[in-house]
Amino acid sequence: MVTPEDIKNWIESGLPGARVEIEGDGHHFQALIVSPKFEGKTRIAQHQMVYAVLGDRMKADIHALSMRTLTPEEWNREAVAR
Prior knowledge:
The chain has one domain (4-75): 2-Layer Sandwich (GMP Synthetase, Chain A, domain 3), CATH 3.30.300.90. Helices cover 45% and strands 24% of the residues. The chain contains four helices and three strands, in the order H-E-E-H-H-E-H.
């Protein structure tokens, strides 16, 4: 069974320098991904980058993945607002 740590490691390997937080129950997962590689990209493009990193694992190992993607600047703005 896939663990949140597995998904975290896969994403971090494919998006070096990303901050990744994953929660889930083995079938359904929620991800927060902050990466400088998201700069200048639409949300759809950011999500596509993550799906590309996960590749066939999205078909075989991960039943559902809800993700929130942010640039470091967006993350910092939110941190100030908290």
